[in-house]
Amino acid sequence: MLSVVNTNSNFAYHTIGNAEFTAAFIRVINNDLTSFYKYHLFIKYGEKVYIEVDGFREIVLTIAQLQQDRYLRFYYELAQMLTNDKHLVVEDLVYSSSSGSSDAEDQIYKEPRRWSPNTAFIEKDIHNDTITVIGYSENAYYKINPYLLEDMDYSTQEDLDNFHVAYMTTYEDENMLCNYYNVAFEYQANLLQNKFEEIL
Predict the structure, then answer these.
(1) pTM (2 decimals)?
(2) HSE toward the beta carbon, residue 113, CA cutoff 13 A
């Protein structure tokens, strides 16, 4: 992966033209105001796609294999809409997903993570019956150093089969998927409108 890196005292901003870093990250707020998180994290390099889904082992497959799974494809496309700069990945130099974080953030990952895409996330508030998009936030973090993907092997067919069998049990209601898509589409349309107004 060829990259351009800009740093400050806290972060290194890696721009990698031949890779994409995206995430479909959803925070769900329950009626009792507790929350939990669901995420699909993607790194695409050439035809190779690395995928992390909360509660599952990460997999590496081809973009063609991803496109064959209706739900993975949905979340991949949702992640594309929510990500502000697909070629940017941010390395946290001082902290990580677990250092100095709140109790809520500690619920997301089992290990410290330092690499995050430049993405917005969806907040599904069951208590207030709302679904909104929240601008860039450091919630989505990759388990791996993204530069390692180039040399990672593809998942075996057995690993992919095991993933798909387990993944099928987590499918969301079709109406909720439509709601996610609609708020992400509106978010993307607003971004384009703002850029257009800046040009004028």
Answers:
(1) 0.86
(2) 24
